[in-house]
Write a structure and sequence with these properties.
Layout (H helix, E strand, L loop, with lengths): L1 E2 L2 E2 L22 E4 L11 H18 L2 H14 L9 E4 L7 H18 L1 H15 L1 E8 L8 E7 L4 E11 L6 E13 L18 E5 L3 E5 L2 E3 L4 E3 L6 H21 L4 E8 L3 H15 L3 E4 L4 E4 L10 E6 L6 E4 L10 H13 L23 H17 L1 H13 L5 H7 L4 E4 L3 H21 L10 H8 L4 H13 L21
Parallel strand pairs: 3-7, 13-16
Antiparallel strand pairs: 1-2, 4-18, 5-6, 5-10, 7-8, 8-9, 11-12, 13-17, 14-15
């Protein structure tokens, strides 16, 4: 493999397998043909600009109150950072390596977490990754001493970097089909963003366009992608439409209530025999003197007095000629359905559904119910599975960084990593109080079942069956309990002593 320009590989024969289809990539890479500057003319104007616009939309709707509340629920359920404990730990129980190598892997994993400042910034990283739909880190090393490993890990704005896949093909003389010879992946970085010239090219004269090797960047997309446009998507993508609809409905509801709540008036002003121009001037003077000046600002949600704008509470002013009934004022009634918000509630439910957050969390409750296992509804169960899926995808960050760190330091080889990477597990910390409460409730339920089967233990059910299937004890836990009972046998309460019987005196 090639790491930061250093070639590390074993001598081996060239592969004989051929394919005309590139491997699947869900990261939204731009696929180009080999040749030219950075492989070819980089026609990524559409995708790059679209990605930047999408990221901006994701960040805009993330500031909405309802969306922000849902994101907080997702982040808090995914990353728990309580009592200054590590929010994540590595598990190597299924990895077949020596204990010495495992200790080194654990130590390097701790180093990675320290470089990321993960204890402090775990939720920030997770929130950025969830909102943007991707996250980039630059792996900084000392090029003079690469065996020291990664010295720093720096976050990169996803709007300034783009992944590119350069495909080299060769034509088969017999069939005429072009087979893939090799694939090179790298990143294109620009401080001012990936914005191309009018020719849609990244030429050598373009300012600050940098080609970065694949191994120098840690890139983890969300796993969602638009296959037609080859763009990585965020989990907020399907929430864009309902979020905008909810915003419009809320603004419309506010405007409707402000405009329809008051009782507006109709002024019939007697202008006598004044000419048209004089009558209009007279009517305008009366209007400016008596009309309301309150306006509604949709950006801030405030009602303010601003004479530069027409008032939404505008009364009606109508001229009346001589011979009429003179000046007259009538009152128009206000709206009658001002308290109905079913339409707003509908779009709010649609938004929560798009964010995969249980709709029950939309309703404000006075307390927090941890609930028993039987009380968990289907939405909460789906949400738990959704959080687990997000965690597994987010864990690819540690796979990428740990792989580079271990190979640079010579702890393992690339072949070793390929054999163990799918066996490494990452255990995310959970809320201690919530976990403890659930475990206690589950244990209480098992004991209740055990009490109901007490009369059948030894006849219908064996002791071992009850321990494994009812109490869900492992073999180690059962052995530990048996050893403890053997060393410290339970004390049998002594039988109650009967008072000595006194001899009855003999009579006679």
């Amino acid at each position: 493999m090639e790491i930061f320009g250093y070639k590390v590989e074993r001598s081996k024969a060239a592969p004989t397998e051929k394919s005309f289809v590139p491997p699947t990539d869900d990261g939204g890479s731009d696929v180009i043909k080999a040749g030219g500057y950075f492989g070819t003319y980089l026609d990524i104007d559409g995708t790059a600009n679209t990605e930047a616009e999408l990221i901006k939309k994701y960040r805009d709707i993330a500031f909405m109150a309802d969306v922000d509340s849902a994101i907080d629920d997702i982040v808090n359920d995914s990353i728990s950072n309580l009592d200054d404990e590590r929010p994540i730990e590595i598990n190597l129980d299924n990895v077949k390596l020596s204990d010495a190598i495992k200790k080194k892997i654990v130590a390097e994993f701790e180093t990675i977490l320290d470089l990321l400042e993960f204890n402090l910034r775990a939720q920030d990283y997770y929130r950025r990754w969830y909102i943007d739909g991707r996250i980039y880190f630059h792996k900084v090393i000392n090029t003079a001493k690469p065996k020291e490993g990664i010295t720093d890990i720096r976050f990169i704005d996803p709007r300034k970097i783009k992944k590119v896949r350069e495909i080299f093909k060769e034509k088969d003389e017999t069939s005429g089909v072009e087979f893939i010879k090799k694939i090179e992946e790298y990143f294109v970085y620009n401080e001012r963003g990936i914005v191309l010239d009018k020719a849609h090219t990244a030429s050598p004269g373009s300012a600050a366009t940098l080609k970065v090797t694949r191994d120098a960047i840690c890139y983890v997309p969300s796993g969602l992608s638009d296959q037609d446009k080859n763009i990585a998507l965020s989990y907020l993508h399907k929430a864009i439409r309902p979020a905008n609809q909810l915003r419009m409905m809320e603004n419309a509801a506010v405007i409707y209530r402000i405009s329809r709540a008051p009782e507006r008036r109709v002024f019939y002003v007697d202008v006598g025999n004044l000419p048209k121009i004089k009558a209009e001037q007279y009517l305008a003077g009366i209007m400016n003197q008596y009309r309301n000046k309150l306006v509604y600002d949709g950006n801030t949600g405030e009602i303010r007095d601003d004479k530069k704008f027409m008032s939404m509470l505008e009364d009606f002013w109508l001229p009346r000629r001589e011979g009429g009934r003179g000046t007259q004022i009538e009152t128009l009634p206000g709206g009658e359905n001002l308290g109905q918000i079913q339409d707003v509630d509908y779009f709010q439910r649609k938004l929560y559904q798009a964010l995969n957050v249980p709709i029950s969390r939309q309703q404000q409750q006075s307390g927090l119910n941890f609930g028993r296992a039987a009380e968990i509804n289907r939405d909460e169960w789906k949400f738990t599975k959704f959080i687990a899926r997000l965690r597994r995808r987010f864990s690819l960050i540690f796979d990428d960084l740990l792989k580079t760190q271990l190979i640079l330091k010579g702890i393992i080889t690339e072949a070793d990593w390929e054999s163990i990477k799918y066996k490494i597990q990452y255990n995310f910390a959970t809320d201690a109080y919530y976990t403890e409460s659930k475990e206690q409730q589950i244990l209480q339920s098992r004991i209740e079942i055990l009490n109901g089967m007490a009369n059948y233990i030894g006849s219908l059910y064996s002791k071992e069956y009850v321990q494994k299937n009812i109490l869900k004890l492992t073999d180690d836990e059962i052995a530990e309990i048996e050893a403890s009972n053997t060393a410290n046998p339970p004390e049998v309460p002594p039988a109650e002593e009967q008072p000595p019987q006194q001899e009855q005196p003999q009579q006679g």
